[in-house]
Amino acid sequence: MTNFILTATLILFSLSVQSQPNLSLKFDDIASGKVFLINKQNELIDTLLINSGNVTYDAIIPTPTLFYLIVDGYNTKRPLPLVLSDQLTEIEFKNFKEINENSVNEAYPNRPFFVLDPNNNAAFYEFLSNWKHFYNLIEKLSENDSPEQLEKRKNAYDSFLSQNKQIIKSNSDQYISAIIIDFLLRNNLLQIETLQEYYDELSLSVKGSYMGFKIGEKAGNAGRLQPGQPAPLFELTDSEGKNYNQQSLTGKNVLLHFWSSSCAPCIKEAPDLLKLSRDYANNLVVINISLDTDNERWITGIEKAGIGHMINVCDMQGLNSVIAKSYDVTFIPVYYLIDTNGNISLKGTLEQVTEKAKNGMP
Question: Which contacts of 196-199 are long-range, i.e. CB under 8 A and separated by 24 or more positions?
Answer without folding.
Answer: 196/220, 197/165, 198/164, 198/165, 198/168
